[in-house]
Amino acid sequence: MATLLISLLCWCQRTRNRFCSMTTPTETPASLIIPFDNAYARLPESCFAKLAPTPVQTPGLIRFNTELATELRISFDDATDSDIAAIFSGNRLPTQADPLAMAYCGHQFGQLNPQLGDGRAILLGDLVDVHGQRRDIQLKGSGRTPFSRGGDGRSPLGPALREYILCEAMHALGVPTTRALAVVSSGEPVLRERAEPGAVFTRVAASHIRVGTFQYFALRQDSEALQALADHVLERHYPTIDRTADDRYLQLFSAICQRQAQLIAQWLQLGFIHGVMNTDNMTVSGETIDYGPCAFMDAFSAGKVFSSIDQGGRYAYQNQSAIGQWNLARLAEAMLTLFPGDEDESVAAATTVLKDFADVHGQAWQQAMGQKLGFGRVEAGDLQRISALLELLEQGGLDYTLFFRRLCKVTQPEQDRSDLLALLTLPDCRNSAAMERNLHEWLDEWQQQLRQREPDPTVVQSRMLAANPAIIPRNHRVAEAIAAAEAGDYSVFENLLAALAQPYAELPQFAAYQEPPQPEQRVHRTFCGT
Ligand code: AMP
Ligand code: MG
Known about the structure:
By secondary structure, the protein is α+β, with helices and mostly antiparallel strands. It has four domains: 30-211, no CATH class; 241-371, no CATH class; 376-467, no CATH class; 475-517, no CATH class. The protein contains 16 helices and 14 strands. It has helices spanning 2-9, 66-71, 81-87, 157-173, 211-219, 223-237, 248-270, 320-335, 343-372, 382-396, 400-407, 418-421, 432-453, 457-467, 475-486, 491-500; strands spanning 26-27, 48-50, 60-64, 92-93, 100-102, 106-108, 111-113, 121-128, 134-140, 155-156, 179-191, 195-205, 272-273, 295-296. The strands form five sheets. Strands 3, 8, 9, 10, 11 and 12 form a six-stranded antiparallel sheet that branches. A two-stranded parallel ribbon has the order 1-4. The chain has a two-stranded antiparallel ribbon with strand order 2-5. Helix 4 packs parallel to helix 16 (491-500) and helix 7 (248-270) runs parallel beside helix 9. The radius of gyration is 24 Å and the shape is globular. The protein binds adenosine monophosphate (AMP) and magnesium ion (MG). Adenosine monophosphate is lined by residues 116-120, 147-148, 151-154, 280-281, 290, 292, 528, 530.
């Protein structure tokens, strides 16, 4: 690991802070106040390039998340839609903002890219929310920055809406994630494979600090920035670690690994595929970030890949645990000089933490899958029980989400299994006769386990209903909402958001959102669309 670190350092290239020339946005109206504090902007200068967003032609408010705004202590009562659109397009700069583009690098599909950074995003600033948590407010699609390389710094409407839907759905599902505060149409076309309507998306994050942010300073041997960044992360995300302890940065590394171990277990139990787990798309806060080509599976398939750019299947569903660990090994390399002891001792300590990641992740996954099956805690034989079930789902091409939701209603031998077995008639299903036999066998054994472990069936059922969502953001629904919005109709997007806001409730008005796609509705490929 240390050898690799040294060879990586040979890539060293010092960045030059270049500043874009652009029209300056006007100031915020008194009616919308964002109480920025801007701790990130107080880090060493090499951490960012300060610059304002580039205004767009005709900002139009598509959606503003008032609930989240309230949580962020944003006062917007007297603000009109056009005030809100002006601010969250980057056309009007909030008074206390200190806008900047963050520097970072990262391994993309296993290859180190020594300079990435916010090429189409600008951090307006950070603030302390009603819970005392520091949160970032970032515009995406707000124009070119010194990190834009060949890009235009803009975002099409489709990916902005996609991120809005997916991150808010993840939040409602109970998974740590960045959030959506606003989406504003820009009134400008964005040229991709074709001209598309442009938009600016406002992302809220516990922070935008990534594994790649640490890598950036390690590569440049900028030890001052590296340590300042680590101190900032300790204070911001891991305040319970003793900041006077000699091994505080090793503890920090270990705590980051634990959060990622839990996070990826959550993804897996929901059938979520991130799609682009590059080290620049992995936060140190433990939130899911970067909803590009991500997708939820319909029919269960361990090797499932949706992303059009993931041709080797590096970020397939079943690879996500191992990739998480690989990314964290890159973080260890970047943080190595901060760990106590000599290089060999640091490498040994980091290796132990990385091995623990596998254990913690495995336990978190078994615990989460156990909850889905109604078990309060994991017991001997559960791993085999879960694996056997997943194998059955894969063999039969069964819908992952619907299967677990319908399983909640057949915990007792006397309950009718026909709703669950009806899944075998869906278009994706294979080998239905053999599947039916095998499923009955698995169900009988599972029900027996439940009876032995939990005498009260209502406890089992409420545990299962809280662990198995009825509604996930299915790809065909997301695609449908985006297509309608591109044609000027936002009602499909709004209805989908309403359905996804209560994923564990089975409300009759949202019943259709539970259904998997018909063959002609299937989405086979997802795109970054950046
Ligand atoms: P992502 O695919 O979102 O993880 O982005 C990878 C890198 O490409 C980041 O440095 C982005 O800022 C940059 N990037 C993506 N799209 C654009 C764009 N339209 N203009 C400039 N930079 C971009
Ligand atoms: Mg990214």
